[in-house]
Design goal:
Structural class: alpha+beta
Strand order of the largest sheet: 2-6-4-5
Number of helices: 10
Largest sheet: 4 strands, antiparallel
Number of strands: 10
């Protein structure tokens, strides 16, 4: 299980780093007037691998819009074991509990893939949501898509093989990245999926033998995406189709 001390909660980033809030699809979909209202409050932050954005039961002070980072939503058991219930990348946002009225969630949010994103004070997003504009409609559509992802993850973890789960996880991660390179150890993937490391080692070995991926010292390169797609269960397509159905008419892809 990953932990992160306060010293790792970094907000600094290289002056050479170029980012744009509209790399996040939800922010890109906002009409100019709504975007301009929140733009002055968007703060670019570094999101290093392993940083915890909030723990179970914690009250959110900010809403996060990832651009190049990927956030993993995990449920942590009493014995410390954890499993990913959903991922959030540049297609979405972290903080739906704020405008759904709950303010807190039983899950943990941890950075799965290091990168950057933008944060906004929670109160501002709640105010925009309550104004009833496109922001509200976008957030509700995204929430439905996220619920589909959470539900399908539960079904997949119960009914499909570790290799199929790994293919689903790799494809969903690739969809949020600009390249086919992932920096990820087998131990971390096992923690995300909620299986033993040996199961991931065996499944990754099969995919490497089939020429789908190359794995070396925590780096995974996808060599044959179509090969992964031929081996994945239907869960990947269900999640992808639902996101496209709900958001493709408003999000830049």
């Amino acid at each position: 299980m990953l932990t992160a001390s306060s010293s790792r909660q970094k907000e600094d980033f290289s002056v050479d780093y170029v980012d744009n809030p509209k790399q996040n699809h939800l922010l890109a979909a906002l009409p100019a007037a709504e975007f301009e209202r929140i733009a002055p409050h968007l703060k670019l932050i570094a999101m290093p691998l392993g940083d915890v954005l909030y723990e179970s039961g914690g009250k959110l002070q900010y809403v996060y819009f990832p651009t190049t980072a990927i956030i993993s939503l995990q449920y942590v058991m009493e014995n410390g074991a954890s499993s990913e219930i959903a991922g959030v990348g540049n297609e979405g946002m972290l903080g739906i509990s704020l405008f759904m009225g709950g303010n807190t969630t039983p899950s943990r949010a941890i950075i799965q893939t290091g990168g950057h994103g933008y944060r906004v004070p929670a109160a501002l997003i709640v105010q925009e949501f309550n104004s009833g504009g496109l922001m509200m409609r976008l957030m509700l559509r995204y929430t439905q898509a996220l619920i589909t992802q959470i539900s399908q993850t539960a079904v997949c973890n119960r009914h499909h093989s570790v290799e199929q789960q790994l293919c689903r996880w790799l494809l969903l991660t690739l969809d949020r990245l600009p390249s086919n390179e992932l920096t990820m150890t087998q131990e971390l993937i096992a923690s995300m999926i909620g299986v033993r490391r040996e199961g991931i080692t065996e499944a990754a070995g099969h995919l490497q033998q089939a020429g789908c991926i190359s794995y070396r010292r925590g780096h995974i390169t996808v060599l044959d995406r179509s090969g992964l797609e031929s081996r994945v269960c239907e869960c990947y397509a269900v999640v992808k189709t639902e996101f496209n159905r709900l958001l493709s008419d408003v999000c830049v892809r």
